TrEMBL record:
SUPFAM superfamilies, per the entry: HAD-like (SSF56784), Ribosomal protein S5 domain 2-like (SSF54211)
GO molecular function (one): imidazoleglycerol-phosphate dehydratase activity
Lineage of source species: Bacteria, Pseudomonadati, Pseudomonadota, Gammaproteobacteria, Lysobacterales
UniProt xrefs under HAMAP family: Bifunc_HisB, HisB
Protein name: Histidine biosynthesis bifunctional protein HisB
UniProt keywords, alphabetically: Amino-acid biosynthesis, Cytoplasm, Histidine biosynthesis, Hydrolase, Lyase, Magnesium, Metal-binding, Multifunctional enzyme
Gene that this sequence comes from: hisB
Positions of region (Imidazoleglycerol-phosphate dehydratase): 169-357
Cytoplasm in keyword set: yes
Amino acid sequence: MTPILFIDRDGTLIEEPADHQIDAYEKLRFVRDVIPALIKLRDAGWQFVIVSNQDGLGSESYPQAIFDAPHALMMHVFESQGITFRDVLIDTSWPHENLPTRKPGIGLMTAYLQDRSIDWARSAMVGDRLTDIQFAQNLNIRGFQLRTEEFGGDWDWPAIAHALADAPRTAVVQRNTKETRIRVELDLDAQAEPRIHTGLPFFDHMLEQIGKHGGISVRIQAEGDLHIDEHHTIEDTGLALGQALREALGDKRGIGRYGFTLPMDETLASAALDFSGRPYFVFDGEFKRERVGDLPTELVPHFFRSLCEAAGLNLNLQVRGDNDHHKVEACFKALARALRTAVARQGTELPSTKGAL
């Protein structure tokens, strides 16, 4: 089955001028990043259909001829980049006519609704206006409103291509207790600067290592009873992050599953892990200092244990060295590098003879 991306034209594929009519060659401007995004989606197996409202097209105020020439040039440019459209569906009615063929109506979609070769679960709509999102809702498919100055929106073309072509493994976990409020946002298929705030700056710095060296996008916002001590904040952050890992990995198809020995000056840390679904944690190391920054060293293995319990992760973590700062940081970096290997997609097979992880 084939997924289809239904795409609005003006303001989505090409920029829309102030008079809302692209009736001359010099008005033709492509929306930023649209061509590389469509190439990525094409290579991922998507087909494209343009669905556009063109108010009064063919009337005296908007003759067909002045529409056809810029439109043909647009299509030629796309074709030169290997981008073809399965169909171009244009409604030429006026808004006051309220015809079912005009978006957000789906009157133009009759033939597509009867096509059983279309993967409707993956199909989507991209447009710059609310009517495009309502059109998507009427089709019961996902809608992306492109970010514009005039109509708002939350998406750009690279983000849309990532969301659809990469099928990113994401999770959002909100963990609220009487002692803490933790929110974790995770994307295993995107790299971004970590955004961490737990109220413990050194712990934030350690968690940043997981995002940076794990090659994943991590956002963590934590509020806890730090006026008592750090225990609950660190423990619950580990549990929430572990739960997010479990949810983002889903059925774990295609992952490397196993993961890293990392040197840091005089320190050597090793993180051997397995996303087996059976939580187990072994820690081999010791710290001389009671704290490194604002992080109690006794809570370092406790954090990793909490992470393993919630993620269904088997982790054997070893660290040797003289400097406790280096040792703590090496533990987090070694875990992150092992995660990078373990969660990386290497195919579609489930890496288990049991048939489940």
